[in-house]
């Protein structure tokens, strides 16, 4: 298994689903955690849970759509741990509905979080990551960023943008030995999927060749691998963890 002892890992969007599973997985692997999310109560509760298990975790209320928020998260992490080795950019929201008559305000919120929020996060994280040796970034994409998705064109557009940001950042940072990759989950048993399907996530499970939804912990394990030294020659790519959905 991957070992993150003495590594400092920053994760955004940690209060449910994949982000929460990733925080627990990195803590179990020995990482020191810098955690950010909009929900201050749930975020601090998770940090306290991890500290109760013997881990080191700092939580800072963070809204990636707010100017300076991720910079403040990074700065707090540097004050506490004096370094940053890994950044997991997980904060994201869904937007559904047909193109015709679509909710423009919801579309704008999704782009501000999923795309501009990621751009803000990368911009804030890079100076700290460049201080280390062999740092890594993992962005959360989606299978919706690798194929069309009727009824969710806005969400798919944000995740196609995540793909472009990931590959471009990987090329910019490769000379500095900072790896940048993405994970593209298929249907995962999370509150987001419940909302996405109107409370009927089983309809998505029927479209997966393996015949079930992923558990958030299964996505977290893929994130850990991409962030670890075991993936030392992997950059600029997206790992689909989708039960065969794209196939």
From TrEMBL:
Q: What class of enzyme is it?
A: oxidoreductase
Question: Keyword annotations for this protein?
Answer: Oxidoreductase
The record's GO molecular-function terms, alphabetically, read: glucose 1-dehydrogenase [NAD(P)+] activity
**Per its UniProt record, what SUPFAM superfamilies does this chain match?**
NAD(P)-binding Rossmann-fold domains (SSF51735)
Recorded hits in InterPro entries, A to Z, give: KR_dom (IPR057326), NAD(P)-bd_dom_sf (IPR036291), Sc_DH/Rdtase_CS (IPR020904), SDR_fam (IPR002347)
User: What Pfam families has UniProt attached to this entry?
Assistant: adh_short_C2 (PF13561)
Q: Where is the Ketoreductase domain?
A: 7-188
This entry's Enzyme Commission designation comes to 1.1.1.47
Q: Which PROSITE patterns match?
A: ADH_SHORT (PS00061)
Name the protein family.
Belongs to the short-chain dehydrogenases/reductases (SDR) family.
UniProt name for this protein: Glucose 1-dehydrogenase
Source organism per entry reads Nannocystis punicea
């Amino acid at each position: 298994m991957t070992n993150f002892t003495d590594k400092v890992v920053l994760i955004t969007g940690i209060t449910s689903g994949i982000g929460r599973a990733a925080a627990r997985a990195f803590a179990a692997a020995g990482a020191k955690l810098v955690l950010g999310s909009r929900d201050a109560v749930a975020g601090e509760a998770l940090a306290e849970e991890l500290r109760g298990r013997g881990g080191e975790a700092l939580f800072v209320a963070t809204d990636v759509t707010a100017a300076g928020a991720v910079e403040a998260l990074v700065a707090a992490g540097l004050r506490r741990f004096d370094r940053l080795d890994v950044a997991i950019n997980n904060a994201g929201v869904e937007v559904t509905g047909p193109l015709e008559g679509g909710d423009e305000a919801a579309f704008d919120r999704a782009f501000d979080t999923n795309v501009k929020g990621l751009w803000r996060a990368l911009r804030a994280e890079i100076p700290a990551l460049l201080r280390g040796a062999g740092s890594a970034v993992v962005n959360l994409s989606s299978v919706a960023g690798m194929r069309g998705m009727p009824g969710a064109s806005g969400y798919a557009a944000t995740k196609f943008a995540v793909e472009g940001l990931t590959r471009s950042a990987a090329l910019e940072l490769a000379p500095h030995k900072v790896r940048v990759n993405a994970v593209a989950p298929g249907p995962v048993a999370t509150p987001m999927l419940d909302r996405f399907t109107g409370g009927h996530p089983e309809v998505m499970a029927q479209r997966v060749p393996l015949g079930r939804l992923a558990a958030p912990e299964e996505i977290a394990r893929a994130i850990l691998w991409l962030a670890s030294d075991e993936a030392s020659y992997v950059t600029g790519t997206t790992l689909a963890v989708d039960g065969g959905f794209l196939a």
